[in-house]
Amino acid sequence: MSVQGKICGLSDQISVDTAVNNGARFIGLVFYPPSPRNIDPNLASQLVSKIPTNVDKVGLFVDPEDALIKTVLESVKLDWIQLHGSESPDRVRHIRQKFDTRILKAIKISDQSDFEAAKNYENVADMLLFDAKAPKHMANALPGGNGLVFDWRIMQGLEFSIPWMLAGGLTAENVAEAVKISGAKFVDTSSGVEIEPGRKDPAAITAFLTALAVIDS
Ligand SMILES: O=C(O)c1ccccc1N[C@@H]1O[C@H](COP(=O)(O)O)[C@@H](O)[C@H]1O
């Protein structure tokens, strides 16, 4: 199977269309107000209104209340809910059952011991996402989307009972190495395809997805 790409934090039509037209498997939409990529549910609905059914729509939330998820789902039919906060396994199970939507649960990684947490989510989520944990001293760090990598070597030899996605600081320049080292079959990028936080670069989106296609060939 080829390496599948997610482009996250999209907030303009040109970037959404560029991602779809260059083979993105997932489109990520951020519903987390402190993020520079946060978008209104009505805009989200417009942006994804014409994307083909083979491209999954992912809504990204951080420790959301049910009400926020409900409001978003009333505007845009999501294929996945990405939970990128400190949601417990029970909270994940509740959200999955209540909203009947697949769950992508983010686990923050700085060293190998952080993968232990992943085991607690394998029975409640549909896919895991491994993102770099921001260092405590990092000013203005978000729960994710910081453009930080972790040491992909620590993934070697790890096995999970559900699919997993690699994220954190991925770019067109480093994604082939990241895939080779980690063995990732799914990858996700946000900062790495931006001109500045919250402003996607269509050329960088194209370059990232082209880099994935080259890995396959
Ligand atoms: O993108 C954001 O603003 C964001 C906010 C809060 C949590 C996660 C966020 N983004 C996700 O973080 C990872 C890594 O992003 P990056 O490529 O390092 O910028 C990715 O899954 C984003 O979807």
Question: What is the compact description of this entry?
Answer:
It comes from Sneathiella marina. The chain has 217 residues and is of the alpha/beta class. The chain has seven helices and ten strands.
What would your notes on this structure say?
The protein has a single domain, classed as TIM Barrel, CATH 3.20.20. 29% of the residues lie in helices and 21% in strands. It is built from 7 helices and 10 strands. The chain has helices at 13-21, 41-47, 66-75, 89-99, 116-119, 175-182, 202-216; strands at residues 4-7, 26-30, 56-61, 80-83, 102-109, 127-132, 164-166, 186-189, 194-196, 199-200. The strands form 2 sheets. The chain has an 8-stranded parallel β-sheet. Helix 3 (66-75) links the parallel strand 3 and strand 4 (80-83). The model has no long low-confidence stretch (mean pLDDT 96). Ligand LGQLAAA5 binds at residues 8-9, 28, 30, 32, 35, 37, 60, 62, 84, 129, 131, 142-148, 167-170, 188-192.
List keywords for this structure.
single chain, 217 residues, alpha/beta, TIM Barrel, two-stranded antiparallel ribbon, 10 strands, binds the ligand O=C(O)c1ccccc1N[C@@H]1O[C@H](COP(=O)(O)O)[C@@H](O)[C@H]1O, tryptophan biosynthesis, isomerase
